[in-house]
């Protein structure tokens, strides 16, 4: 998927937030992806943070953990908690983290943008800011643009976030510690800018990385050997549903669907009877073989609590 990740789409469909997208106001969803090679299997079962934003901080964390372990801080929880092994230089690692018996603090900036109440000319446009400022403040134009695009809503008078600028970035910033501009044009809206430094107490988390497999392909081959199961013994409604999903790539279960009663839950029974490779909240992911082809199957049971409660994860991935 391009602009929407699979997980965001699942979440949106589950609560009807994106009704009309793929016809969904779903209470469950299934995705089926063919995985013809060990490399393809391994890619599905790993996380690969990009060195490009917005993943660059996470990629740096993984690289540091692999090199010699690393510490990271956050005010609420460990900043990166992958639900599967991570990849660095094509090697697969298990990433672990724990809270250290100490804390620290840092200076963050409460940056507030208020809709200007007059016709003053902006000092500059958001797009004219440095790359550092645009990256740190990217949520502001996105939010303002979304409000402006929705005819049933109004641009909020004030948007405010606490944002951390590392010391090196502060030197490149025209916003912190002291803004060089009073007014910006953001997504076509003139806004007043204010910046207030705040001291934030942070917990310290220790990250370590342990090699799990020498390559993604080797990891995928091990998963096929240890955790793949044969999808067989399907009834005719189950078979038709699975073949439809593998052809379409996705299926949303809800009052709008046109499959026979019980077909989805009976098909789901075949999966929850096996430990999933990945379990996160109401979602399970499995590797199965059907009609001579391997498939990576993801099911979000969302509002099907009785199935979500049956999800079990393999003892070791």
Task: Please give a quick description of this structure.
This protein has 317 residues and is an alpha+beta fold. The chain has helices spanning 6-14, 38-44, 56-68, 131-136, 139-149, 167-170, 216-227, 236-248, 263-272, 305-308; strands at 28-34, 70-74, 86-88, 91-115, 124-125, 158-163, 183-186, 189-213, 229-230, 250-253, 278-280, 283-290, 293-300. The protein has 2 domains: 1-47 and 216-317, no CATH class; 49-81 and 91-214, no CATH class.
Give an account of the 3D structure.
With 317 residues, this protein is α+β, with helices and mostly antiparallel strands. The chain has 2 domains: 1-47 and 216-317, no CATH class; 49-81 and 91-214, no CATH class. It contains 10 helices and 13 strands. The strands form 2 sheets. Strands 2, 3, 4, 5, 6, 7 and 8 form a 7-stranded mixed sheet that branches. Strands 1, 9, 10, 11, 12 and 13 form a 6-stranded mixed sheet that branches. Helix 2 crosses helix 7 and helix 8 (236-248) packs across helix 9. The longest helix has 13 residues, at 56-68. The radius of gyration is 24 Å and the shape is globular. It starts with 5 loop residues before the first helix and ends in a 9-residue tail after the last helix. Residues 1-24 have low confidence and may be disordered.
Defining traits:
single chain, 317 residues, alpha+beta, six-stranded mixed beta sheet, 10 helices, disordered N terminus
